[in-house]
């Protein structure tokens, strides 16, 4: 929940100046009220995502937006199950799965988020939590894995200044890929993109990007700053 038109213009102008690595797919997650505006000024090379949507096409769900509405204004991506939706707004695994299923059925591409809290990590439950959250998504995704990006975001490393070390992040990504291989299939496990999303900055992006199972980033606060360009170019 950041930005106004002035800040949005600054961010978009900064991205236009770039230059951005042409081999990197860039998707910006915009507050719903500004989606149409951003769509009208963003370069064709950058995708626009909503930060959330509901699990039905329309109805008595005051304050919500549907995948159909997003498609109607030309938005093709949505972020679902973000840690803040889970921890602040109480979205449970089954609700996130229902949202993912409906978004995919509606033709949207989904960045589906998973990750553990500090308490869960300290109790040694990281894998248990991440596997449980992913397991709920599997039937919702069905055969639409090509339209899904998984984003692992350790809740304890978001906005806290703490970052999982590249080793910690790689460990979780590798075990998640292994879980997918066993429970979904080897082809999907090797092809699905697993992003890392815990306080990514220009300073740590290069080292994180060099990990074999980290396929990209879900960038938080740093996406509002000029350094976002450096993060996009982290593998150059």
Automatic annotation (TrEMBL):
Keywords from the UniProt entry: Gluconeogenesis, Glycolysis, Isomerase
Q: What is its EC number?
A: 5.3.1.1
Catalytic class of the enzyme: isomerase
Look up the record and name the pathway of this protein: Carbohydrate biosynthesis; gluconeogenesis; Carbohydrate degradation; glycolysis; D-glyceraldehyde 3-phosphate from glycerone phosphate: step 1/1
What reactions does this protein catalyze?
D-glyceraldehyde 3-phosphate = dihydroxyacetone phosphate
NCBIfam families of this UniProt entry? tim
Describe its partners and assembly state. Answer: Homodimer.
Q: Which family does it belong to?
A: Belongs to the triosephosphate isomerase family.
Q: What is this protein called?
A: Triosephosphate isomerase
| Species name | Iphiclides podalirius
């Amino acid at each position: 929940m950041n930005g106004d038109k002035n800040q949005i213009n600054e961010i978009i102008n900064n991205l236009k100046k770039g230059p951005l690595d042409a081999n990197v797919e860039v998707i910006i997650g915009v507050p719903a009220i500004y989606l149409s505006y951003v769509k009208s000024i963003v370069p064709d090379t950058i995708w626009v995502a909503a930060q959330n949507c509901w699990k039905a096409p329309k109805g008595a769900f005051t304050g919500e937006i549907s995948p159909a509405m997003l498609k109607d204004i030309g938005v093709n991506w949505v972020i679902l199950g973000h840690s803040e939706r889970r921890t602040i707004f109480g979205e449970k695994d089954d609700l996130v799965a229902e949202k993912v299923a409906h978004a995919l059925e509606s033709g949207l591409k989904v960045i589906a988020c998973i990750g553990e809290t500090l308490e869960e990590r300290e109790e040694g439950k990281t894998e248990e939590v991440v596997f449980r959250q992913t397991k709920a998504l599997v039937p919702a995704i069905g055969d639409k894995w090509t339209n899904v990006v998984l984003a692992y975001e350790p809740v304890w490393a978001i906005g806290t200044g703490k970052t999982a070390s590249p080793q910690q992040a790689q460990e979780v990504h590798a075990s998640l890929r292994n879980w997918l291989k066993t429970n979904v299939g080897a082809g999907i496990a090797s092809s699905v993109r697993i992003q890392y999303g815990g306080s990514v900055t220009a300073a740590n992006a290069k080292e994180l990007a060099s990990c074999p199972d980290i396929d990209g980033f879900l960038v938080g606060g740093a996406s509002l700053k000029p350094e976002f360009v450096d993060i996009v170019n982290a593998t150059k």
